Amino acid sequence: MIPKQTQTRTWSRGIVGAFLLLTLVVWLAGCGGPQTTTPPSNVSDRGATSARTGDQYPPPDVSAYTFAPVTFSGSANNYKSGWTLRTKSSNLELGSDGLVCDLVGGEASDKGIYGGVAIPVPAPPKALKLDLSFKNPQGIAILFVDGYTGPKTKPVVRWEWRATKGREIPEGANTYVLVPGKGSGFFHASKNDKADRVTRVDVFVRINPGADTGFTLHKLEVGK
Fold first, then answer.
1. Residue 33 within a domain
2. Is residue 36 included in any domain, yes or no?
3. pLDDT (tens digit per residue) in 24-62
4. Does the pTM of the predicted model rise above 0.90?
5. Residue 93 is part of a domain; what is its CATH number?
6. Which residue range is the domain that position 104 belongs to?
7. Would 105 be classed as within a structural domain?
8. Which H/E stretch holds residue 30?
9. Rg (CA), the chain
10. Phi-psi label, residue 194: left if phi above 0, alpha if psi -120 to 50, beta otherwise
11. Do 202 and 144 meet the contact criterion of CB atoms below 8 Å apart?
């Protein structure tokens, strides 16, 4: 027969051991269980800022080029772009302020609604400066600047500005500087092939159905 005092000590040790074992199990469960980590606020902010401004390019360096303006003369219809398609109306005027292109969008089309101007250039441009202003720019979906080697050819140079939220086209007059193969501001250089053969530059827009919009090309300068 086990003495009563020995039984008490054995029972006490059993209670303590069970308590320590239970504590260890709970602690291990807490360490190994699923955890949720919230990133610091500065990391989230940095990611959002990058998403808003990550596709904006710095202005290209054109300090090595000499620019000369292209002279606009004759009838405004001489400058009508082949990209005038599916508009309800389009009108070109040539005045002291430059080439004015007024457009009203037609019905919705999967092929898009376009309008713009085409300007012969005296030499293949190593860079371009365009003084542009816009009428109701919220009606413009995409602004294009293309370079062509002939009258019935595909573009060999292209810049495009997709006017999405945070990248809207401004209404007032601004000068845009472009170099073949390089982005500038919200202009993305999407094509650059045979830029040294360009003989014509088209400036045109894809507009929304029914939009009363347009632009004025005040001046075009070619860099050599």
1. no
2. no
3. 333 434 433 333 222 232 222 222 222 334 478 999 999
4. no
5. 2.60.120.260
6. 61-223
7. yes
8. helix 4-32
9. 33
10. left
11. yes
Which tens digit of pLDDT belongs to each residue from 91-144? 999 999 999 999 999 999 999 999 999 999 999 999 999 999 999 999 999 999
pLDDT band at 64 (very low <50, low <70, confident <90, very high): very high
pLDDT tens per residue across span 192-201: 988 999 999 9
174: phi then psi, degrees, rounded to nearest 5: -145, 155
Phi, psi of 193 (to 5 degrees): -150, 125
Measure the N-to-C terminal CA separation of the chain; round to a whole number of Å. 112
Contacts of 8 (CB under 8 A, 6+ apart): none
Residue 53 lies in a domain: no
Give CA separation, 60 vs 81, 180, 181, 182, in Å: 27, 10, 10, 7
Q: Which residues contact 201 (CB under 8 A, 6 or more apart)?
A: 118, 119, 121, 125, 128, 145, 146, 147, 148, 220
Residues 168-211 have pLDDT tens digits of: 999 999 999 999 999 999 999 998 988 999 999 999 999 999 99
Q: Which tokens is 54 given?
A: 């990550």
Number of folded domains that form the chain? 1
